[in-house]
Amino acid sequence: MSPARGESAPGGSAAGAPASKDPVDPPCVFCRIVCGDEPAHEVLRDAVAVAFLDVRPLFPGHVLVVPRPHVVTLPDLAVAGVAPLFERVRMLSAAVRDATGAQGSFVALNNQVSQSVPHLHVHVVPRTRGDGLRGFFWPRTRYDSDDHAASVAASIGEAYRSLSPPG
Fold first, then answer.
1. What is the full per-residue pLDDT of the chain (167 aa) written as tens digits?
2. Cα–Cα distance between 91 and 108 in angstroms, integer?
3. What is the Cα–Cα distance from 49 to 70, expressed in whole angstroms?
4. 148 is known as an active-site residue
């Protein structure tokens, strides 16, 4: 659970007192955790993010890392917020591995589809060879042909270039 109001949370500010005036969505359970109004088993709380145990973990130690401001998907996150968020994800991928005795970790996020809470969150899951997870969590497929793969790659490249600033 979160520390009591006024106590230091691991990694940063006191629980229950937002470190900044980040935009929040009161019905959002993750915003309520960020604000200290909803209990969670926190592992990190600082000016950038809050990380806590998933209530329905794949394995013990499955952590969710959320940015403090309410954003729904990764493209909604300000560019300036990406590196700080993923620095915490990077560090937590090692911390989860080490704390659980796992051999590695799986890091993932969903953008809208399969996103059970509409607030950007990154999953950091401890992994050990033979743990029962097989590849990804959905069936794999193949491209119809090399031309099909090239066409899909070209379309994604074109879409990326249209989103990227020139330079």
1. 333 323 333 333 333 333 446 788 889 999 999 999 999 999 999 999 999 999 989 999 999 999 999 999 999 999 999 999 999 999 999 999 999 999 999 999 998 888 889 999 999 999 999 888 876 666 667 889 989 877 877 777 777 678 766 65
2. 14
3. 11
4. no
Cα angle 7-24-92, degrees, rounded to a multiple of 5: 55
Q: Residue 8's CB: how many other CB atoms inside 10 A?
A: 11
Give dist(CA 96, CA 65) in Å, integer: 12
What b/e sequence results for 35-58 when a residue is b if at least 16 CB atoms lie within 10 Å of its CB, and e otherwise?
Answer: bbeeebebbbbbebbbbbebeeeb
Neighbours of 11 (CB within 10 A): 17
Say which of 70, 119, 121, 123 is annotated catalytic: 121
Strand partners, 106: 125
Domains of the chain as residue ranges with CATH: 29-138 (3.30.428.10)
* pTM for the structure as a whole: 0.78
H/E segment holding residue 106: strand 104-108
Q: Which residue has the tokens 């890091």?
A: 107
